[in-house]
Predict the 3D structure of the following.
Amino acid sequence: MAQEGGQGANRHYRRHDSERGGSVLLGYLIYRSGFLPKVSGLLLALSGVGFVAKTFTWALAPSYSSPLLLMPAGVAALALTGWLLVKGVDAAKWEEKAALAEAR
């Protein structure tokens, strides 16, 4: 049964932002993978830091919580989407690393 009011809405907000903080990990993995540009990984990691900063400022000092903290997320999403649509993943590098992993 869904809760209406403050408690249910706050729980959803916290869950949503904790998932977005995972962008730091995803950015790190993209940075290290070599299949996508390192800049995309850095932008995603920066967007994760922005989400965490937004959450902390929202909880500790709401008057300083600004939507500008989320701007890196939009830039990262557009950059990664554009890259995947235009260039895609480096398939040759993918095959090479897959062959090395199978040889182990």
About this structure: The two ends are 50 Å apart (CA to CA).
